[in-house]
Amino acid sequence: MSRITQNSKCRLCRTEGTKLYLKGSRCLSAKCPIEKKGAVRPGMHGLKRTKKPTDYGIQLRAKQKAKRIYGVQETQFNNYYKKAKLLKGKLGENLLILLETRLDSVLYTSGLADSRSQSKQFISHGHVLVNGSPLSISSYALKINDEITLDKSTIDQIKDTSKIKEKDFRLPGWLLLNKPNFSVKLTNLPTREDITPEIDENLIIEYYSR
């Protein structure tokens, strides 16, 4: 199973032509290659790749982009799509809600982790508790009223640098943050307006419907 390495993350952003925020706060700094070079595709001929993409190519890029933003593998993404089809409501919105309510995603969205990759690291190392019990499954599907906390060693590690300390940090309305305890509670399911507009779920549906 392929893994996204630290060195390949910037290349993925350049491939998609936009920031995927795979390196957390570094993506907001002047060190980001997108800031330095613009959205130029990787490789020595990146600037020359001007061939107009096909409809299939556009749909594929939309799917790949979403998959990379959430850090899931191809089989996982396909399974999320199949599950979303079985739920009531809009298919595209259901898909995004399933991805957004993964444990690693909520940990990142809440500001308790700097990136989704850091979320996965915290979880796999046993530093994350859900409803008081350690949980080491990044893909765990959170439910309303579930509460996430970090262990003391992790809180000590991030307490001075966490995003939740920033004055302009804003938490989406479906999450309730307890700053002193470094914990977050899922009080509702996210709506489409709560989820990044960088993803075009309609193109993803078109990709799977072809």
List the quaternary state of the chains: single chain
CATH class descriptor name of the largest domain: Alpha Beta
Mean pLDDT across all amino acids: 87
Instruction: Give the count of structural domains.
Output: 3
Tell me the series of helices and strands, N- to C-terminal: HHHHHHHEEEHEEH
- Name of the CATH architecture of the largest domain: Roll
What is the assigned CATH homologous superfamily of the largest domain? RNA-binding S4 domain
Strand order of the biggest β-sheet: 2-1-3-5-4
Structural class, by secondary structure, is alpha+beta
CATH fold name of the largest domain: Structural Genomics Hypothetical 15.5 Kd Protein In mrcA-pckA Intergenic Region, Chain A
* Spatial gap, N to C terminus: 26 Å
Main β-sheet description: 5 strands, antiparallel
Fraction of helical residues: 40-55%
- Kindly state the number of beta strands: 5
Number of continuous helical runs: 9
Label the overall shape.
globular
